[in-house]
Amino acid sequence: MSSFTETDQLAINTIRVLAADATAHANSGHPGAPMGMAPVAHVLFNRFMNFNPKNPKWLNRDRFVLSNGHACMLQYALLHLYGYALTIDDLKAFRRIDSITPGHPEAHDTPGVEVTTGPLGQGISNAVGLAIAQAHTAAVFNKPGYDLVNNYTYCFLGDGCLMEGVSAEACSLAGHLQLGNLIAIWDDNRITIDGDTNQAFTEDVLKRYESYGWHIVTVLDGDHNLDLIADAIQKAKEVTDKPTLIQLKTTIGFGSKKQGTHDVHGSPLKADDIKQLKEKFGFNPEESFAVPQEVYDLCHKASAKGAAKEEEWNQLFAKYAEEFKAEHDDLIRRQKGELAEGWEKHLPVYTPADPAVASRKLSENVLNKIFEAVPELVGGSADLTGSNLTRWKGAIDFQPPATGLGTYAGRYFRFGVREHGMGAIMNGMAAYGTLIPYGGTFLNFVSYAAGAVRLSALSQVRAIWVATHDSIGLGEDGPTHQPIETLAHFRALPNCMVWRPADGNETSAAYYVALTSKHTPSILALSRQNLPQLEGSTIEKAIKGGYVLHEVEGADVTLISTGSEVCIAIDAVKELKEKHNIKARVVSMPCMEVFDAQPKDYRLSVLPDGIPSLSIEVMSTMGWEKYSHEQFGLNRFGASGAYLDVYKKFEFTPEGIAKRAIATIDFWKDVPNIRSPINRAFQQLI
Amino acid sequence: MSSFTETDQLAINTIRVLAADATAHANSGHPGAPMGMAPVAHVLFNRFMNFNPKNPKWLNRDRFVLSNGHACMLQYALLHLYGYALTIDDLKAFRRIDSITPGHPEAHDTPGVEVTTGPLGQGISNAVGLAIAQAHTAAVFNKPGYDLVNNYTYCFLGDGCLMEGVSAEACSLAGHLQLGNLIAIWDDNRITIDGDTNQAFTEDVLKRYESYGWHIVTVLDGDHNLDLIADAIQKAKEVTDKPTLIQLKTTIGFGSKKQGTHDVHGSPLKADDIKQLKEKFGFNPEESFAVPQEVYDLCHKASAKGAAKEEEWNQLFAKYAEEFKAEHDDLIRRQKGELAEGWEKHLPVYTPADPAVASRKLSENVLNKIFEAVPELVGGSADLTGSNLTRWKGAIDFQPPATGLGTYAGRYFRFGVREHGMGAIMNGMAAYGTLIPYGGTFLNFVSYAAGAVRLSALSQVRAIWVATHDSIGLGEDGPTHQPIETLAHFRALPNCMVWRPADGNETSAAYYVALTSKHTPSILALSRQNLPQLEGSTIEKAIKGGYVLHEVEGADVTLISTGSEVCIAIDAVKELKEKHNIKARVVSMPCMEVFDAQPKDYRLSVLPDGIPSLSIEVMSTMGWEKYSHEQFGLNRFGASGAYLDVYKKFEFTPEGIAKRAIATIDFWKDVPNIRSPINRAFQQLI
Prior knowledge:
2 copies of one chain form a homodimer. With 686 residues, chain A is an alpha/beta fold. Chain A is built from 25 helices and 20 strands.
């Protein structure tokens, strides 16, 4: 006999009707997937998930990720029914400006939304990250008798998510990592926007996931048979050494006259269709956004159970505090996003007497110095460990213990050659709440992960890219690997810090700001080639994003530069002085976004009125007009050759800079009262 | 008895020694994969591939793609041995500046290199595109008795390529498309840069490819058994309704003292190691870059056979010309990259009396009008056909005939939700030489394909992105789908045209330039919302990239805008005139890259000295400082809501523009001789 009642069915139909009402009211949105997935959503939320809507941030809650984010009315309906801070009016404001119910789920806006989804393939990859974070946090903090962290991560996904390469990368790694705490439910409705999936997607998905090492379950009737759905989820929970994919056969837009067709995918139902839907499900066709009280009661009962579970957990955690004070306090601290007191004292400091070192190596130095003081810092590389230098000495790999290659308490990640998957996984890891993830690759290949980096920025997570080989200075690998457009790309992305440190102190500064910026991702662009430790650089100055590295009275020109070109600009100062009797000052600008946030008088002191300026950066000049009058860069692809030969070819030498500095001075000599580019006619909206 | 002799083995060892010599000479590069794959490379080039080194562009040649592009010394050695225009001195110049043997293979530089590879996963995806192009070209041009186009595409790839999501996308589609002409050979050496593949890559690759619908062959000894290798390739050729993956077990760096370890992956062998290698293989350890004459002879014999094949083919093609004159001439024309005479007369032309239409719809109009006149234009969408409007009326789908959904002669592609795969496939299709591919998705998701777009630009192929929903103007889908940084990103990419047309004539102009630019990819950013047909726009003006749309004598300010904001700028002119007695002129700038290529006096006529200018574009302002004195844009994420509400929120209204125009005039009023941003102190290197 089924353990489900008519009220369960009513709850399911309520979700369907709410989805139809909200999309019709918004005159936009996706009713089909919410209506098709309402049964599994109900079963999952009502019978399996542990959560407390009054405290959506409870550490040990089960995580729910809607990878097919266009189905968000499903999630909003659930959050409302279960008592999260999301009212019926919020549902009515679906897809309206400034609502907490936007067209796709946004984590930073809506209580109960764990990660920002919609761009397909991201959510399931975030879910892998959430599951990794759970496994690691459990391995570090659980103790005998204290199974503090044991939550599951559940993810809904559609055909689109399965077609995206990012999910392939993340799911292959999830299989390797044997993440038994991850349960993905595939809405197998055979419909995409273009129509039947047989037009483009005829692979054997289950076989593919088996090849990744996943456990597979199939539910042939996801529309009606709630017991089968519950059995499938239960079976998935019991397999603890493999992630599970549940194939759930559903009918898109179940209940609509057009159910099972792509007409219900991305457009609201017509009025007469909604009318028959409500009649069929026993709702009053004259009413909209109606929720039967017994449905609220059923859902709130589950929420109350979740709240009680949290209360139990709080008691356990209080007991844990007595026995494991340090761990307890550490876990509290991590959840606040704050770093351990005094951690920053471990950041390396350099003087000009220290040897020239590549900034990728300077980054490794930072990791070696701070890894103990910042235990929540975990990360790795997309198969470029020896090039990115992302692994501190003696690091233990995060690996399933069965492999013999590491443990789940390990903090170093072998992401494989999977940049996009790594980026999306980092977003999930950061969203879990106890970790700060970093990932290494060549700067040029951060672009492979652009979709994930964008969501780091939009969802305001602290993820750090260790992006080495940051310019044509990588030399022989050539133009296929030499970034030109990359910094411009990510500087144009809102809420993303792009750092390009010039030496050791600036590298320490980059880590300092990246690690202390709770709501902003960072990309650290680091050199392959050696860079001298500069006279005049300090961590304190560099954390302002831009500062005067070399001042001279009565300067004729300001040279502004970043990273590996700063030391060449310094040499150009000598060249200009000695050969041309020209006085140049030098500004180092390791991070434009941080510089922009400084008070205007500071910025004007760095880039003052009255003298012309020339920026020097060995890639696209795009964006530099905001800070400099003239720009020296590389608006073409690079070349394969020894680093110094490549720099010489493109005139990134003291002489090449001096030549352009002279041209700049000459071009601006007749302009009275030269205005710093810092001065603008109006403020930008932010 | 083996059909291979000692000379075959000598040829293989010659490749190995050349790879060791060249990487040692360059003091950089990857000897391991060339040494491991030398046997299969020899068998493939010597026994299977049809090619004529004297005419590397012969249409029906077999295509060879080195997806693991870091192994390029393998390819360079082959090209040299078989008599392509690549001398022993070119091998000595491996990875040197301005050589034709750069660190990764670049198609536009090196004869015999089909596509530019190195960024992992791209080559195999290009190979899918080459195979698609072959299937389509064959279906269109082959006739009974004229099997004109029947070449195979062979691709080498490594573990890294298999881990990348882009290859997963492309290979899933290749299986669906039943591309029997595609043969991929996986260098299964168990080693990546980080070490053993068991650290991150333990999936069952063969099972995965079976799940995609591929045919699978395994060669357990790829180091020695040439007959097994030949058998495997032969079997692969015989399976004509499935692509084949050959798993070839090899030893990385075969012959080195460190063979089978990641030490030989990315660093040259030490001198003593090279010495023992040469001794072991019977080479003089004192000599470098030595090629035994019998090896040249063996290779040149194969090349001569290829040349004879081409000669045979030329005769067949000459006979074809008699019977199928039109098709013959069409094929010749296509290979030159030239469009059919008069095609451009089909481009739609509009007057202000025509109704307001979304530019995605204007793009559909272009496709509907030109598809007959431009038969080499083929394309589709990443599962957004109804949104991108990429399908002309009555188009036939490119599908395996067995599916009943289309034919290989079909010109419309169902790419599935696979943006990155689509981009890389387009690069392969374009490289084949008979097609101009286009692909549709939302502008925001072109970023998923950034890795492929970059290679379109670097390898100079004509691929076109139909990128709709190009701004916050898409409305309700919200910030997850609203591009902010995307145009800046691709404008910063060298050799990539970014078009954002404002109306019908500009949309026709965008297609005109995109289709006639043989060596440059284009991104067409198109609106979801309706746009009026503008007074003053013409195709002739718009193909200059930027032009004066609205002129007024004694103007106080220039408003520069693109796409959907141009019509709002025009409304702002009225607002400024009527409410503030201010005279504004308007410049439409649909394509910066094309505008930049105009003579300076033209550019100065559009953006003259003497008056201040304000740019208006509803996304990142980055890059606009190059053209305007002040910038109105959106340097934050957008919002979910009805399109007009979103525009209003961010003040993209005639009033919002007028306010900023006034601020601009005010800010610049005391500056004498305002200089147009077109004037620069020095020229950029290009």
